[in-house]
Design a protein that fits this description.
By secondary structure, the chain is α/β, with parallel strands linked by helices. It has one domain: Rossmann fold, CATH 3.40.50. The chain is 38% helix and 24% strand. The protein has seven helices and seven strands; from the N terminus they run H-H-E-H-E-H-E-E-H-E-H-H-E-E. It has helices at residues 11-21, 26-35, 52-60, 73-82, 118-128, 147-152, 156-170, and strands at 42-46, 65-70, 87-90, 103-109, 129-140, 174-177, 181-187. Strands 3-2-1-4-5-7-6 form a seven-stranded mixed sheet, with helices on both faces. Helix 3 (52-60) links the parallel strand 1 and strand 2 (65-70). The protein starts with 10 loop residues before the first helix and ends with a strand.
């Protein structure tokens, strides 16, 4: 059985997957609009891929402190080329290489469905978030203009399960049906 080059991009298929992922940043602009980080905020992206979301954020506000973790060396190289000022490290959703309370926002765009242990990834996101920080999880929308995005979308039951897991970790979660993405946001409890 062939391995999915988008799940953990490696080698030539991984470089090609990164190129495919980077063809459009519409969904990343939409996610950035929803997140709307304040000037100077720290944004940590889980599974940054070729770095489009971080590049969109950097282009909008150079004062943002951008960091992220991705398990793929291929994606790390592509994202570093696209976002040279960001603190990009090798890591996974369930083992983020950042300090407790070090980020105002944690985001994962089009990869939460690939996390092998979603509850562990959510716990890590909460650990890295500052009190009052925002979690943003987004996945392809069933209403997107792109047939590929619609094909990759998840059914309502998957979203209900995700929202339940986020609520179990954060105590709150809200679903957002956007044009290119379906998203879930939550706020880390203030201490």
């Amino acid at each position: 059985m062939a391995r999915n080059p988008f799940a953990l991009p490696t080698g030539t298929p991984g470089r090609l997957a990164g190129w495919v992922m980077a063809r459009s940043d519409r969904a990343h602009r939409e996610a950035a609009d929803l997140l709307a980080p304040a000037a100077g905020a720290t944004v940590c992206e889980v599974g940054f891929g070729p770095g489009q979301f971080l590049a969109v954020l950097a282009g909008r506000d150079p004062s943002l402190q951008l960091c992220g973790a991705d398990p793929s060396e291929v994606m790390l190289a592509q994202a570093r080329a696209r976002c040279p000022a960001a603190d990009l490290r090798r890591g996974t959703a369930d083992e983020l290489p950042f300090y407790d309370g070090s980020a105002d926002h944690v985001a994962a765009i089009n990869n939460v469905a690939l996390w092998p242990d979603r509850p562990a990834g959510l716990a890590e996101a909460r650990r890295v978030l500052r009190p009052g920080g925002t979690l943003l999880l987004a996945w392809h929308s069933a209403a997107a203009p792109s047939p590929l995005n619609r094909a990759l979308s998840k059914p309502a039951a998957w979203w209900e399960a995700l929202l339940a897991e986020v609520r179990a970790e954060f105590g709150n979660a809200e679903r957002h049906d956007l044009r290119h993405l379906t998203a879930c946001t939550a706020t880390a409890a203030s201490t």
